[in-house]
Amino acid sequence: MKEWLIYLIPPILGALIGYLTNVIAIKLLFHPRKPINILGFRIQGLVPAKSEEFAVRFVELIEDYVKKEDFRELIDEAIGKTLRESKLMKFLMNPVIGAILEKYGFKERISEHIDGLVQRSQLLLSSAIVENMDFKRFLEKKIAEFSEEEAELIFKRFAKKEMRFIEISGAILGFLIGLVQTILLIVAY
């Protein structure tokens, strides 16, 4: 019975080594945060070492997909909502005021005038805001405010299942390699 134990060692050891290797590889994405020198080699986690480059690439990627004009609709909607919820509109929507204005024929004219004013204001304001908005600088500032710890937490939260899959895959691949070694041992003897 003991002779069969020797055939279990390569798959079990392979699984353990594969798992631990992948756990360490994932850890090395973020650690060490500060560069350290070991025997003349500079070692630093991938994310901390390339954080500035990642930030630049991320901003470029976002800029490729999100343009200033994409904000115009969002800004128009916010301005319209703000104007509709303004004190003037609430005053004019008051049932007593509305009844008086309607009785004297002013409600429709005032409503049309305010609608036109709101539309012109939305167009002017949203155009001015979009033209003066520096989305790239805003993104760069926000990304620069991220610490490596926050980046690691976000990445782990975002890719938790995928990282676990990588760890388990290492164990499975290590086990399979060990199994092949065992089969080769059996065939060789």
TrEMBL record:
It comes from the Archaea. Signal peptide: none annotated. Its main location: membrane. It is found in: Endomembrane system. The chain crosses the membrane at residues 6-30, 165-188. GO terms for cellular component: endomembrane system. InterPro entries: DUF445. Keywords: Membrane, Transmembrane, Transmembrane helix. This is DUF445 family protein. It comes from Geoglobus ahangari. The lineage of its organism: Archaea, Methanobacteriati, Methanobacteriota, Archaeoglobi, Archaeoglobales.
